[in-house]
Amino acid sequence: MTVQQQTGPQPRFDLKASAWSRRKKRIKHDLLQIAIIVAMVGILIAFALAVRNGLARHGISFSFDYLWQAAGFDISEGKTFSWSGSLPNLTDFTAADSNAQALITGLFNTIKVAVLGIIFSTILGVMLGVGRLSTNWLVRQISFGVIEFVRNTPLLIQLVFWYFAVVLQFPPLAAAAKLYGGFIISQQGTYLPWPVLAEGATIPSAVAASVGIALVFTALFVSAKLRILALVAAFAALALAIGLGFPFVLDYPVANRFRASGGIAISPEMAALLLAIVVNSASYIAEIVRGAIEAVNRGQWEAAAALGLNRRDTLSDIILPQVFRVVLPSLGNQYINLSKNTALGIAIGFPELFNIYGTIANQTGRTLEGIVIVMVAYLLLSWIISAVVNFANSRLAMGTSR
Amino acid sequence: MIASTIRWSHRNLFAKPLDAVLSLVVIPLCAWALYSGGSWVFQGAQWGIIPESIRVLLVGIYPADQIWRAWGTLLIFGLLFGATLGCVFFLHRVLALGYCLVVAAIALVAVYSEPTSALLIVAAAALALAGWFATSRWENLRRFLVPAWTLGLIAVFALLSPPGIGLWGGLMLSVLITMVTAVLSLPLGILLAFGRRSQLASVRMFCTAYIETMRSVPLILVVYCVWIVLPVLAPQYSVPDVLRGMAGFTIFFSAYVAEYVRSGLQAVPKGQVEAARSLGMSELDVNRYIVLPQSLRVVVPPLVGNVLDVFNAAPLVFIIGLTDFLRAGQMVLANPQYSDRTYEIYIFLFVTYFLIGSLITFAARKLELHLAKGAR
After folding, report:
1. B197 and A29: CB-CB below 8 Å?
2. Within this chain, do residues B218 and B92 fall inside the same structural domain, yes or no?
3. Whole-number Cα distances in Å, B128 to B71, B121, B122
4. GO annotations under biological process (chain A) (predicted)?
5. Is the pLDDT of residue B376 over 90?
6. For residue A219, what pLDDT is reported?
7. Could you tell me which residues come within 8 angstroms of residue A25 by beta carbon, excluding any fewer than 6 positions away?
8. Do B217 and A383 touch (CB under 8 A)?
9. Under the phi-then-psi rule, with left for phi > 0, alpha for psi from -120 to 50, and beta for the rest, what region is B60?
10. For residue A3, what pLDDT is reported?
11. Does B228 contact A33 at a Cβ distance shorter than 8 Å?
12. Are B343 and A40 in contact (CB < 8 Å)?
C-alpha cells in the first residue's frame, strides 16, 4: 500500500519574476486552491443531499438506530461481543442480539479467515516460489503450472469450485468418521483434535506447559546458539508441567449421525473460502518471492558456495532473509488483497462481514447506512495491515547496512 | 536415446538425495493424477452437455432469434483485435500459418455440431487476420486504432441493445464488461494520476483519498454500492443493471489504472520535463506531448495485465443479479437433469477462462519485450 506521502513538485525559479509578480502568482494559486476545495465540498454536499432526497422520496431517513434493534436471525459461526456486567466478553451470536452485534460477528469471521489466510498463504507461497526455482525439473514444472493456472483464472470460480466440487463432495459424516479417525473430514465440516484443559489441571502446571510450548516455537525462529538454550528451557518447563500433572489433553471429535462434537470444527464454507484464498494468494506471493530471489545478487550465492554452504542452507540462511526484506511491501499489498477477497464468501454463504451486511440490509431495508459501516470496516482493516507491514518493514530495514 | 533420457533424468530429477526423494514422491502422484484424470476425461465424462448448453454459456438468456446480433459483435471484435495485434506483432508467414491451423481446428469442432456457426467463426477469424495484416503492413492505419475501438464499442452497443440490455449474459457479458471498463478507466486513471501529482495540494489530496479508498475496499462492495446509489441519485432514469455494474467496475479500476500510470509518470526522467520547459512549452503541452507518451509506453504491459484482472473480476457481477459466464454455467447446472455434470461444466469454464487469461498474460509479456527494445 502506498502510504508514504510523495514530495510535491519543487517551485520553479524564475529570474524575471519580481516580488510583486511572484506574490500575484501565489495569490492566484491560493485562490485556485480554495475554489477547488469549495467545489469539491460542494459536490460532496450535493451528493449527500441528492441521496437524502432520494431516500426521502421512498420515505426512508438516514439513521443508524437500526443497529440497536434485535437482529432476529441466526449466524452459523463466529463470536460477538456482549456485555456481562461491565466487562465485554466473546459469546456466540443468538437471534436476540442486536444488528450491531451481528456485524461484529461478521467482522470476527472476516478477520478469522484473513489472519489464517495470511499465515497459510505465506507458507504455501514461499514453498511454491522456492519450488519454482527448484533443481528438480518436475517440482519446477508443477509449481509453474499451479501458479499460472491460478493466476489466469478468476478467484470466484476457484472458490465456487472448491466449495461445490471439492468440499461438498466429501463423504457424509457417518462414513467419514470411520475413514479418518481422529480427524473427521466430511460434508458437514472438518473436525480436528484440539488441546483443551484437562480436568483437575492446576494453574502452575498450565503456565509451565504453555511456556514450554511457546519456547519450542520460539526456538524455530532464533539463532542456533539461542535455539539450544530455548530448547533446554522448554524441556525443563515441560518436565515441570508433566511432574505437576500434564494440564492439556487432546480433545478428539466424536461423530454422531448428523453432527460431531468435540475438537475444533471448521465449517464447509470456511474450509472452501480458506482453501480458495490461500491457494490464490499463495500463487501471487510465489511470484513475488521468486522475483525477489532472482533479484538477489549472484555474488551472494557464489560467496555462500565458496564458504561451503549447501543449497538448502544458502537458501534458508543467506538468500531468504534478504528476500523477506525486499518483498515485505509487496507482501503487504497481497495481504490487503487477501483480506478484501474474503468478501467473496457471500457467494458460498460464509457469514463474513459483507454477507451479514446483506442479510441485515434485506431485513431492515437499511442498505446505505450499512454500506458506510462496511466500507469503514474494510478501510480500517486495510490500514491496520499496511501499518503493521510498514512497521515490520522499518524494523527489518533498520538492521541492515544497505 | 535411452542414454540421453537417463542422463537427462539424472541431471533434472535425481541430481541430489533431496531431489531423488522428491521425485520418488511426486512422480507416482503425478502418474496417478494423470491416469485418473485422463480416464475420466476420455471415458467417464459426458461432454455432450457442452454443445447442448453452449448457447446459454456464451450469451446467457439472450433471445435465440436475435443471436445474429451476437455474431455481429464477434465479427466486429475480431476485426478490432486483429488490428490491435498488428500494431505489436508483425504478421510473419509462420504466425499466419499457425493461426490458420488453430482456426481450422476450432471450425472442425464447430462443424461437428453446427455448420453455420463454423462458417461464422471462420469469417470472424478471417476478419481478424485481415486486420492483423493491414495494420502490420501499413503503419499509417495504426493512428485510426483508438477511433476504431471507440466506434466499434458504440456499434456493438447499438447492435446488441435492441432486445434489451438486461438480457445480456454469458461469456459475451464478461467480455463486454471487461472492454468497457478497460476503455473507460484509462482516461479516468490518467486524470487521477496527474491529479495525484498536481501542484495544487487540494487536488492532490482528493485524488490520493479517492485512489487509496478504492484500493482498500473490495470490488464487490463498490459494485454493490454503485448499484444501490445510482437509482437513488437519479430516480427519473431507470439505469439498467448492466450499465450500473460497468459504472462500478470503472469507478473501482480507474484507481488501479491511476497507480500504474503514476508509476509510469515517475519513470520519465526529470531532464525530459526540464528540457521541454526550457523550450518554452506550456505545462499542459509538457504533460501532453512529452511526459504522457513516454510514461504510457512503460505502463502498457501492466495495463494489459490490468485487463486480465478486470476479466477475472467480472464474475463478481453475480452480486447485482447479472448472468455472466460463471453464472451461466451455474444456471445450466441448476437444471435438475444436468445436476450430476458439475465437473464437466466447471472444467469447461476453467479451460475457457484459462485460455483467455493465458492469452492476455502472453500478450502482456510479449508487449513488455517489444516495448523494452527501444528503451535505454
Report:
1. no
2. no
3. 14, 11, 10
4. amino acid transport
5. no
6. 77
7. A17
8. no
9. left
10. 44
11. no
12. no
Give B 178-207 residues with CB within 8 A of chain A. 197, 199-204, 206
Are residues B326 and A154, on separate chains, in Cβ contact within 8 Å?
A: yes
Same domain, yes or no: B53 and B186: yes
- Give the residue on B whose Cα is nearest the Cα of A310: B16
Q: At which of B91, B125, B158 does a domain end?
A: B158
Q: Which domain holds residue B30?
A: 1-44
Residues in B closer than 8 angstroms to A347, CB to CB, are: 318
Domain end position, chosen among B133, B158, B183: B158
Is residue B345 within a helix (H) or strand (E), and if so which, with residue range? helix B342-372
Closest-CA residue of A relative to B236 is A54
Interchain contact A64–B (C-beta under 8 A)? no
CA distance B209 to B217: 12
Do B37 and B120 lie in a common domain?
no
The number of folded domains in chain B is 3
Q: What is the pLDDT of residue A2?
A: 44
pTM: 0.85
Per-residue CA distances from A298 to A132, A292, A320, A324 (Å): 17, 12, 13, 17
Which residue among B225, B231, B259 places its CB closest to the CB of A371? B225
List own/partner pairs for B293-298 with CB under 8 A and 24 or more apart. Answer: B294/B264, B294/B267, B294/B268, B295/B261, B295/B264, B295/B265, B295/B267, B295/B268, B296/B261, B296/B264, B297/B264, B297/B371, B298/B263, B298/B264, B298/B267, B298/B371
Å between A227 CA and nearest CA of chain B: 25
CATH, residue B235: 1.10.3720.10
Question: From the CB of residue B66, how many other CB atoms can be counted at a distance below 10 Å?
Answer: 14
Q: Is residue B336 part of a domain?
A: yes
Cβ-based contacts of B199 with chain A (< 8 Å): 8-9, 29
Cβ–Cβ < 8 Å for B60, B168: yes
Percent of chain B with pLDDT over 90: 23
Q: What are the tens digits of pLDDT across the range B253-301?
A: 999 999 999 999 988 888 999 999 999 888 889 988 888 888 888 888 8
Domain boundaries, chain A: 26-62, 79-173+267-398
Specify the higher pLDDT residue, B66 or A9: B66
Whether residues B198 and B245 share a domain: the answer is yes
Q: Rounded distance, CA B82 to CA B87, Å? A: 9
Q: Which of residues 290-319 of A touch B (CB under 8 A)?
A: 311-312
To the nearest 10 degrees (0 to 180), the angle between helices A137-151 and A268-295 is: 120
The verdict on a CB contact (< 8 Å) between B220 and A346 is: yes
Length of chain A: 402
Using an 8 Å Cβ cutoff, are A111 and A381 in contact?
A: yes
ipTM of the complex: 0.88
On whether both B175 and B154 belong to a single domain, the answer is no
- List chain A residues with CB under 8 Å of B220: 343-344, 346, 354
> Which chain B residues touch A280 with a CB distance below 8 Å?
none
Which residues of chain B does A55 touch, with a Cβ-Cβ cutoff of 8 Å? 232
Determine, yes or no, domain membership for B81: yes
Residue of A149, A164, A383 with shortest CB distance to B342 = A164
Is B267 domain-assigned? yes
Chain B contact set for A161 (CB, 8 A) = 346, 350
Please state, rounded to an integer, the average pLDDT across all residues of chain B: 85
B231: chain A residues, CB-CB within 8 Å: 54
Residue B27: which of A32, A138, A156 has the nearest Cβ?
A138
CATH class of A79-173+267-398: mainly alpha
